[in-house]
Design goal:
GO cellular component, one term: ubiquitin ligase complex
Radius of gyration: 43 Å
Protein name: RING-type E3 ubiquitin transferase
Oligomer: single chain
Number of strands: 7
Shape: elongated
Largest sheet: 3 strands, antiparallel
Helix content: 55-70%
Strand order of the largest sheet: 6-5-7
Structural class: mainly alpha
Enzyme class: transferase
EC number: 2.3.2.27
Distance between the termini: 178 Å
Pfam families: U-box, Ufd2P_core
Strand content: under 5%
Length: about 1050
């Protein structure tokens, strides 16, 4: 039977544990052991004091100092030794857990805890002053100025991942961190000793990711950053780092991105950057080379999406930890504001890459800010009241006041602030606002603010600041990137067209060089395009978050004007008027872009967007910029049901937007018609051409809405109510556009045929210089596009006239409109069936959207529709009055064409009858003209030089004109045609005296004519009788 092992005393256990932890001995070892150091001097000192030759907790620190300060051969460098001490202490701690004696175990735990604490403490001392202990020079990490702590941090946060492209993100070199070491190291209350260590770590992490793309090693440094800021000391040290927000005279957006601690982390991206700042690996070359298969593309898209979302989540968590810490929150907001303010020029069309941060940084920042917004983007938007509109006036962080506002001019805002400052002396917000203003045009109907001062801390709440910062970041980031993508696609198309043109030319050495250069350029364009698609367009959650943010934006903006209800208040609230214009423009741009993406609207409520657009698209008193209001129509056009391109469910959802909302049913058609009129004058030098594109979108919407019974009824009601108002203006511009577009396209067809004839004469064509042939060929293709576009727009306008005149005729037959309508129809008829019709024949008319038979049919239907509604029989006379295009033979010629194409016989018969009536009216008009004889000049209208029927005096120029003539002029131009002063129909002054004179003149002439006819009749009777008598 074996004897039981003798129980060791507390002192013996303590000695054994400490010797193991610190790897020291007080007695010279019998066998040499390079790991255990014999502390000869310490042993001699203990002996001299007559103490037992044991290690105790009281001797622990002096033992450690002796070990570190001594010059021992072949020992570990100080840092590795101290970390090893901690690891061995941890191992000893696990061993003693089996001790049955609780008191003894507690004593040993205390010893081990003290050993750990000392190890950590001296680690800090060593890292803070690497020269403090001998042997530091043999530490390779210290010698290279790299912190030996960083591999331990990497070990703690994970070894990183190996991506499918073969790149490993592990840099920890197999070093394992003892459990609990870093936690003990960074939780020390002595911030001053930790601060320089942490600052060094942040600088190293920044350096690692400085030139790294989304395919490189960014995940491990990012996890390390997140780990460090999770400690209060780490968070405080980061925001106190001199590079948190770099300072300097030449500070700009790019400098912040390159030199701040967080900047390089935000720079990590799949989007290409300027060659000077290029990151590796090159995403475009590695993932999207010329030979990439579709399956490879899908795989690359998925990988990049995963990597970038990992980046977004990590960066968002870093910022969130800093924001939750009361000591660091302000610093984070200051950093974000500085990044935004210093990159404000990213909103420009041309961005200077040397002074502005990269697109990648701002797309990343967009995604991160949207994640920070998630708590207040709930479906019910319950926290929207925490967003204070007065932040625009008094927020001192973001530079918002220099931005173009929805309606208010800078002078107006300054005036409001200054008025308010009289009652709030001492506030500096007003002064700051006054100093930042720039003169713009003013003059608006905006309600004065009751009190501009922010209410308490509401305007400074995090939700409020986060909202405005996110709006600015999205404008400079995500929305700018989407705009860049659109321009990139256009550039690609131009390059492809140029390449095709070059390949059609005769080969030459220079041509081969140009083709090779263009092909290389196109390849880079394709890579850049796919990088954008990979990081942005295929990331549906990113777009959904952005749409959710802008849903909050429109709901919040509508709240400023009293909620979703119409009509809008007569005066625009100053808070709404002063909001940056891009808040609304970005929302519209995102909706347009998202509408082209599959599933982008999944889970997004579009009702508020729809109602917002209906409320403001025809309200220049609220949104001054006509192009922004036109963009709202473009959004509606994108949301419109398109059964041929959508699933039945998507079509039904789209239809419910247009057909299931009260605001839509009451105001959509009305506001579209109003915008159609307003867009005639945008104030831009390109307004004449811009209006056609805008009206094209409106026309498509109106055509769809006409087919919806509820909207058609609303349309007819508007035509009745606004017969002499907005509806008459709408018809006037519709007719103006129709005439211009058809005339322009028909003339271009004639020019195009001449050019086509030139090119078909091969012998003559080849004799021309190459440059001339190239220019003429370019002109030929340009004309093709112009004809196609103009003809498409003309077809739309004529089609709208055709289907609306089926139900609405009264406005067309008004005195100021009927002659204009008749002249337009006569002109179209002359072009289509007149003498020059054969010269308009094309080889492939469908290519140019030229459908003469369909066009003729629609024009005839307009004639017939108006004749049916002409209860007073004034239309035939208006047709015959047109001296430029009217010809009675055109009606029979058109009828022949309609019979040949098999048109409805009843319609043809009605059209022929209308022609007959016009012929009679023409004869009667000639008789009437003969009756009147020479008309005094004072009775003639000075514009048309026709006899006035209802003379009126213009209040400014005092010139007398005929009412229908001036009213027709006022439909297009609210000014006196003789001196350009402002003029409206209600300002016209009836000239009753002149009217009476004209009527008397007519009666007099008719009376004279009657007497003359009577005498001629009598004479004819006598002559007839005499003849008869002679025959007899």
């Amino acid at each position: 039977m074996s004897t039981p092992k003798p129980q060791r005393s507390k002192e013996e256990l303590e000695d054994i544990i400490l010797r193991r932890i610190f790897q020291v001995s007080l007695t010279e070892p019998a066998e040499p052991n390079s790991r255990v150091v014999y502390l000869e001097m310490t042993a001699a000192e203990i002996l001299s004091e007559g103490k037992p030759m044991r290690l105790t907790r009281d001797l622990m620190e002096s033992i450690l100092i002796d070990r570190l300060m001594g010059s021992f051969a072949a020992v570990e460098p100080p840092f590795q030794y101290l970390v090893g001490c901690y690891r061995r202490a941890y191992d000893e701690g696990r061993k003693i857990t089996v001790m049955k004696d609780k008191n003894l175990r507690a004593d040993m735990e205390s010893v081990i805890k003290q050993a750990k604490k000392l190890s950590v403490s001296y680690c800090r001392i060593h890292l803070g002053n690497p020269e403090a202990f001998p042997g530091s020079g043999s530490d390779p990490a210290t010698a290279s100025n790299a912190s030996p702590l960083l591999p331990l941090v990497f070990s703690e946060v994970g070894s990183g991942s190996v991506d499918e492209f073969g790149g490993s993100s592990s840099t920890s070199s197999g070093v394992q961190c003892p459990p609990g070491f870093l936690d003990d190291f960074f939780r020390d209350s002595d911030f001053d000793s930790l601060d320089p260590i942490l600052k060094g770590l942040y600088e190293e992490l920044r350096e690692i990711v400085l030139k790294v793309s989304a395919l490189g090693n960014f995940q491990q440094p990012l996890r390390a950053l997140l780990y460090l800021v999770s400690f209060p000391a780490g968070a405080k040290s980061l925001v106190n780092h001199p590079w948190w927000i770099p300072k300097g005279v030449y500070l700009n957006g790019r400098v912040i991105e390159r030199t701040s601690i967080l900047g390089p982390f935000f720079h990590v991206s799949a989007l290409p950057d300027h060659p000077i700042f290029k990151s590796q690996p090159d995403v475009g070359q590695q993932c999207f080379s010329e030979n990439s298969k579709d399956s490879d593309l899908r795989s690359s898209y998925a990988t990049i999406k995963t990597l970038t979302n990992s980046l977004y989540d990590g960066l968002a968590e870093v910022l969130l930890k800093l924001l939750k810490n009361a000591e660091t929150r302000e610093s984070v907001l200051e950093y974000l504001a500085e990044v935004i303010n210093k990159n404000s020029s990213r909103a420009h069309i041309q961005v200077d890459p040397l002074s502005c941060a990269s697109s990648g940084m701002f797309v990343n920042l967009s995604a991160v800010m949207l994640r920070l917004c998630e708590p207040f983007l709930d479906p019910n938007l319950t926290k929207r009241d925490k967003i204070d509109p007065k932040y625009v006036f008094y927020g001192d962080r973001l530079e918002l006041r220099g931005l173009t506002a929805l309606h208010a001019s800078s002078e107006e805002v300054t005036e409001w602030i200054n008025k308010d400052s009289l009652g709030n002396a001492g506030g500096d917000g007003q002064n700051r606002l006054s100093q930042s203003q720039e003169a713009t045009s003013s003059g608006s109907n905006i309600s004065q603010p009751s009190n501009m001062k922010p209410s308490g801390e509401k305007s400074k709440s995090f939700i409020c600041e986060c909202f405005f910062m996110t709006a600015r970041v999205l404008n400079l980031g995500l929305l700018k990137a989407l705009s860049d993508y659109k321009h990139l696609v256009q550039d690609m198309q131009r390059s492809e067209d140029t390449l095709k043109a070059l390949k059609r030319q005769a080969p030459s050495p220079q041509l081969n060089i140009d083709i090779a250069r263009l092909e290389k350029e196109l390849e880079l364009y394709k890579q850049e395009k796919r990088c954008h698609e990979a990081q942005i367009l295929t990331d549906e959650p990113l777009l959904e978050r952005a749409l959710s943010f802008y849903r909050l934006m429109v709901v919040w903006l509508v709240r400023l004007v009293g909620g979703f209800k119409m009509p809008l208040p007569s005066t625009c609230p100053v808070e709404f008027a002063s909001m940056p214009e891009h808040f609304v423009e970005d929302a519209m741009e995102l909706l347009i872009f998202a509408s082209r993406m599959p599933k982008a609207f999944h889970g997004i409520l579009l009702d508020e967007f729809m109602n917002f657009i209906i409320m403001f698209m025809a309200s220049p008193e609220y949104i001054r910029n006509p192009y922004l209001r036109a963009k709202m129509v473009e959004v509606l056009n994108c949301l419109m049901p398109r059964p041929s391109h959508q699933s039945p469910a998507a079509t039904a959802a789209a239809a419910s937007l247009f057909e299931g909302h009260q605001l839509s049913l009451e105001y959509l058609v009305r506001n579209l018609l109003k915008l159609y009129v307003d867009i005639e004058f945008t104030g831009s030098h390109t307004q004449f051409y811009d209006k056609f594109n805008i009206r094209h979108n409106i026309a498509e919407l109106l055509e769809y809405l006409w087919q919806v019974p509820s909207h058609q009824n609303a349309w007819k009601q508007i035509a009745r109510e606004e017969e002499k108002g907005v509806y008459l203006n709408f018809l006037n511009f519709l007719i103006n556009d129709s005439i211009y577009l058809l005339d322009e396209s028909l003339n271009k067809i004639l020019e195009h045929k001449e050019l086509e004839a030139e090119m078909s004469n091969t012998a003559e064509w080849e004799r021309r210089p190459a440059q001339e042939r190239q220019e003429r060929t370019r002109l030929f293709h340009s004309q093709e596009n112009i004809i196609r576009i103009d003809m498409k727009l003309a077809n739309e306008d004529v089609s709208m006239l055709a289907f609306t005149t089926e139900q609405i005729t009264a406005p067309f037959l008004l005195p100021e409109m009927v002659e204009r309508v008749a002249s337009m129809l006569n002109y179209f008829l002359l072009q289509l069936v007149g003498p020059q019709r054969k010269s308009l024949s094309l080889k492939d008319p469908e290519k140019y959207e030229f459908r003469p038979k369909q066009l003729l049919k629609q024009i005839v239907y307009i004639y017939v529709n108006l004749a049916r509604g002409d209860t007073e029989n004034i239309f035939p006379a208006a047709i015959s009055k047109d001296g430029r295009s009217y010809n009675e033979q055109l009606f029979s010629a058109a009828a022949d064409v309609l019979r040949r194409i098999g048109e409805d016989g009843r319609v043809i018969q009605e059209f022929v009858e209308l022609g007959s009536k016009a012929k009679v009216a023409a004869s009667e008009a000639m008789d009437a003209e003969a009756v009147l004889g020479d008309i005094p000049d004072e009775f003639l209208d000075p514009i048309q030089y026709t006899l006035m029927k209802d003379p009126v005096i213009l209040p400014s120029s005092r010139i007398t004109v005929d009412r229908p003539v001036i009213q027709r002029h006022l439909l297009s131009d609210n000014s006196d045609p003789f001196n350009r002063s402002h003029l409206t129909a209600d300002m016209l002054i009836p000239d009753n005296d002149l009217k009476a004179k004209i009527q008397e003149f007519i009666r007099s002439q008719q009376s004279k004519r009657g007497e003359s006819l009577s005498m001629q009749s009598d004479k004819a009777t006598i002559q007839t009788t005499s003849s008869e008598m002679l025959i007899d």
